[in-house]
Amino acid sequence: MIKMNRLSRLLLILFVFLSQHSRAQEMILPLKENQVVKTRSMQRNPTAQKPTGLTLPFFEDFTDNDPYPNQSRWTDKQVYINNTMGRGIISRGVATFDALNEKGVVYYDSVGAFTTIFADSLTSQTFDMSGFQPSDSIYLSFFYQCGGYGFYAKPWDSLTLFFLGSNGLWKEVWSLKGDTAQVGFQQAMIPITDTAYFNDNFRFRWVNLATIGISNSNWNIDYIRMDKNRNRFDTVLHDLAFTADPEFLLNDFTSMPFRHFKTNPANFLASNTIAHLQNNGPNNLAFTVHYDSKDVASGSGLGSSNTNITISPFNTGTATMSVYNAATFNPPNPNDRVVFEQKFNCAAQYPNESLDNDTIIRQQVFDNYFAYDDGTAELSYFLNLAVNAPGATAIEYALYQPDTIRGVAIRFATTLPSQSYKNFSLAVMRDIAFNGGTDQTVYQENFLTPAYIDTINAFYIYNFSQPVIMNPGVFYISIIQPAGGISDSLQIALDANRVGGNHRYFKVGVSWESSQLEGALMVRPMVGAALVLGVKDPKEANIDFQLYPNPAGQYLNIRTEAAISNKARYEIVNAIGRKYREDKLDTQHNIDIRELPAGIYFFRIINDEQFSGVRKFVKY
Fold first, then answer.
1. How far apart are CA 93 and CA 617, in angstroms?
2. For the chain, what is the radius of gyration of the CA atoms?
3. What domains are defined for the chain?
4. Half-sphere exposure at residue 340, Cβ-oriented, CA atoms within 13 angstroms
5. pLDDT tens digits, residue range 170-216?
6. What SS3 class is residue 449?
7. Across-strand partners of 401?
8. Which residues, listed in sequence order, are joined to residue 273 by a DSSP beta bridge?
9. Which candidate, 28, 37, 143, places its Cα nearest to that of 88?
10. Residue 117 forms beta bridges with which residues?
């Protein structure tokens, strides 16, 4: 890892961060984990790909349906293959570089923030170049983008391309520093002319230099080509490709219960379903896009159609289809989960163009929750609370028939240090004091802490202790952060590529404000029948206690009205979230803290039967 002038780097980071990524009290940060990759790392490879020697021409546009690079072409698994991190992508699928390893967690989590490291690599399998020579005019080209929907690489970060020579050493042949400017994909053209590369063990490798903490240094790479008989002007792709995922069938929600949808389908259905394409070639293209829709459970077709569109050279276009039979479909049980599959495809328009990017699929899910997010996160969102001031976030939803709110599914963004000791409350509100409204709390669940589940969606379900029965109408789910520094920087995963109305409000202190940041928070109210067993219920803290003296120098004492179980233990966590001590409570409830370094700590009592809220104390 690379050492830096810490003070100057810190000042510059804070200046860039505050100027680029804050809107009043709303803040965004890069993710410290990737749940898609994390889940994939725990699975066996279902279709192990045997590495083979590569030949010319070589082409890769990352259309494989796997978050890992295809191992028949690449030797490592550190970049993230996806279709959500890139802005204005060239064709479906990009490779994203960040500061997360192949298990989806931060590299070197023991290093401090603002430390710059060599992070992700993307290394090709071996090419036999011994039959070629410089006169064959071989070029490697690729498209690159800094940031995209992720976090921009900072000016001291970089993306670098290396070639492996016959001496076994890697040589830098191209490099680019980070940039906070909003730019689309750019193409790089790299000639291969050095005779040291014309051997039977040639490889190329990209590496990103990333800063841990505030910047996770996202870069996207797409559409890699290497072939002979090229020149520096050979930049035209000659390919028609689907790009971003098709739009959802719904015009606002990304998911909702089917029985609510059926109350007035015309109110929820988008006027059309849309797929996005790009003509990457020099011809004016007039072609046909075919659309199929079906119910996944039964296989029943909902309809199919063709539409003719024209896209001019080097331009984008959309295939717009009518939504067939979604409104008239009836599942066996109105409470069932319903999944519609939308499939778009078109015929190749250029000779020898890629066929993998000529098809794209989107699933429309109806289930027991309301959602604005698409299930993937690109950033994390938090409120910048004032010292000793509370904060709250509220997201607007609506019921369209009487129903029962059973809980809330939330994907919290993991943090370094851990935020598992940050308390918050969940409230169901009929109205908030914004634009003439008044705060009307229907139900509130207290003493909750962030929790995580290692699944692709990574939502943790907070099952309400009491069901909340409500009539149709608007309601809000509010995440309330109490004052006192025990819930600051509570980070929630943000689906950054969901643009448009975010239905989000926040307050830091007194007044509600409308959110100014795009993207959907990954917060989903759960409705209907009782939630499945096996999901942990939040429990009301049933040990009310005080710590004294506070501040304390040698001993802490516990004062409580109720008896504490003789099985109870206590935990002390330091200010950066690491557990300092865990031990059984003695009968005197007296804690020796003489060896604790001076500082701020958090204390709680817990066992199988009882647990407490968190109390903060100062050791002097």
1. 49
2. 27
3. 29-235 (2.60.120.260), 241-366 (2.60.40.10), 379-527 (2.60.120), 545-619 (2.60.40.1220)
4. 30
5. 999 999 998 877 689 999 999 999 999 999 999 999 999 988 765 67
6. coil
7. none
8. 321
9. 143
10. 210
Helix (H, G, I), strand (E, B) or coil at 541: coil
* pLDDT tens column, 405-449: 999 999 998 775 566 667 899 999 999 999 999 999 999 998 888
The closest alpha carbon to 496, from 373, 318, 331, belongs to 373
pLDDT in tens, 361-404: 999 999 999 999 999 999 999 998 877 788 999 999 999 999 99
Q: Which residues lie across from 287 on neighbouring strands?
A: 309
Residues 6 or more apart whose Cβ sits within 8 Å of residue 364: 248, 249, 250, 255, 326, 339, 340, 341, 342
Q: Round to whole Å and give the CA distance between 180 and 20.
A: 8
Where do the DSSP E strands lie in 312-423? Answer: 315-321, 338-346, 359-366, 379-383, 391-399, 403-410
d(CA 337, CA 333) in angstroms, rounded, equals 9
- DSSP SS3 for 267: helix
Give the SS3 label for residue 28. Answer: strand
Give burial (CB, 10 Å; 0-12/13-18/19+) of 453: middle
Q: How far apart are CA 227 and CA 238, in angstroms?
A: 15
Size of the chain in residues: 620
- In angstroms, the CA 195 to CA 193 distance is 6
Rounded Cα gap, residues 553 and 530, in angstroms: 49
CB-based contact 419:578 (threshold 8 Å): no
The two structure tokens encoding residue 527: 């409705």
pTM (2 d.p.): 0.82
Tokens of 19: 């100027």
Tokens representing 385?
């609370």
